[in-house]
Write a structure and sequence with these properties.
2 copies of one chain form a homodimer. Chain A has 10 helices and 8 strands. By secondary structure, chain A is of the alpha/beta class. In chain A, α2 (13-31) packs across α8 and α6 (156-171) packs across α10.
């Protein structure tokens, strides 16, 4: 169960709330081009608390989703969420993404979002996803890249706190800069890659709600999940950390605050 | 003539070549949405060697362009370029962007690209551009943000060399991270801002020419223009610099290289 405990952001209620906020804010951006035909069998590999599952199921009401996660606790939250929305086309199952209890070629499509960045061996996971995919089936992989993020005003302290968060995740053997290598990862796993595209979000004071939500409900809370480890590992001192978070939140304020982040969406097929 | 000599990238033939390469690679990205009506008077504020002028004039063949620059040497190159292309709707004039020899309200539109990042006081320049613009006229401002750039594989040395380049420009009192604050700059100058949008470029091994061009004909040569100052100012040692440039060029290679950069385009109007 190592992978469960090494999910950097942890399993707190506050983190679940952050994931739902993030999903609500990013739904249009991440999911607008993701829809599956009626009757198709879709695997969501690593559904977590179901933050993406809702959008997936609503966008493709006649597809049949199987959403797996290694964490029973997360699956319980995901189930409750889906039921509360009256969604009926999702089946949940506890499973290890590196050794899934499905036959070869079981699914028409695979969807994986914000998962590869948290794995010891993302290529092995992609190979396993390819195994359970039918020949000709597609994979859609969405991952962020924390090295893509910048904000204004950007102080030394806010940059140092952000970098400390990146180091904490790297220290777990995971890759918070994985977005930029999604293309080679998919190629390496043996997929025929259709393309990798950036899905960016930018906000300035002309969109004060997005600016506030992006910073105060996604980025700063995400940084907070790394604080304890960052201090424990000596990656940053507490005074700098506090100043850094405070400066990051300052970037959410009009008239001059702004923020940019990009995710990457890769689409690929399994050859015949 | 201070501003002439403090153009960070210098005035060499090699730099002119870089600017033309950059323009050719980025033309579709930067100019596809920029077109002016027949008969309109457009000021290009800071045309340099004419790298953007060609695209502007070709996209709006019936508009009348006045392209100014502080450097007579750059203007000579721009003139030669425009003549070589058979373009006839551009008039060049040597002028200081902070004190232009034009009456109030002389132009229907202003276009400024890759200029504000090199000025001591970009807000003052924008106010001067607003002065020569007619009420109801538009400004289109395009600026990069060097803090937006990342690549794979990204080594410590390549990041340090890139950061040293940023520091050289900041040391001149200019802002290579200006893209992220284009919105507040336009607001501060008194424009009615319609919006600021990222114009991103991403390349991986699926687009080997763009990947090679982006790194070996734009980014690495741009870094080279800062080398002498970076070493002189003690921002980096020569061994780290050399390794950094070499590592940056490595990111241009298949199968796993990738690169991302974003510019920002702001559009705004002068109120009545």
């Amino acid at each position: 169960m190592k992978r469960m405990t090494s999910y950097m952001h942890g399993y707190s209620d506050r983190e679940a709330e952050r994931l739902f906020d993030q999903s609500a804010i990013l739904r249009q951006l991440l999911h607008s081009d993701v829809a599956y035909p009626a009757g198709s069998k879709v695997l969501e590999a690593g559904c977590g608390v179901g933050a993406q599952t809702v959008a997936l199921a609503i966008n493709s009401p006649a597809a049949q989703f199987t959403s797996i996660d290694i964490s029973p606790q997360s699956l319980d939250q995901a189930k409750a969420l889906i039921e509360s929305q009256g969604i009926t086309n999702v089946r949940f199952q506890q499973a290890d993404i590196l050794d899934m209890p499905f036959d070869d070629g079981s699914f028409d499509h695979v969807f994986v979002c914000f998962v590869l960045e948290h794995l010891d061996n993302p290529t092995r996971a992609l190979v396993e996803m390819k195994r359970v995919l039918k020949a000709g089936g597609t994979i859609t992989a969405i991952e962020g890249d924390h090295g893509s993020c910048f904000w204004h005003p950007e102080t030394d302290e806010s940059r140092k706190a952000w970098q400390a968060m990146i180091r904490v995740q790297q220290n777990l053997g995971h890759d918070p800069l994985i977005g930029r290598r999604l293309y080679p990862l998919l190629v390496q796993a043996g997929f025929e890659v259709k393309g990798v595209v950036p899905l960016w979000a930018y906000a300035d004071a002309s969109a004060p709600e997005l600016l506030d939500g992006g910073i105060n409900r996604i980025l700063a809370p995400m940084m907070e999940t790394a604080k304890e480890q960052a201090l424990k590992l000596g990656l940053i001192d507490e005074a700098t950390w506090r100043q850094g978070i405070s400066d990051m939140r300052r970037a959410s304020l009009p008239p001059d605050g702004s923020v940019f982040y990009t995710w990457f969406r890769g689409t690929a097929t399994k050859g015949y």
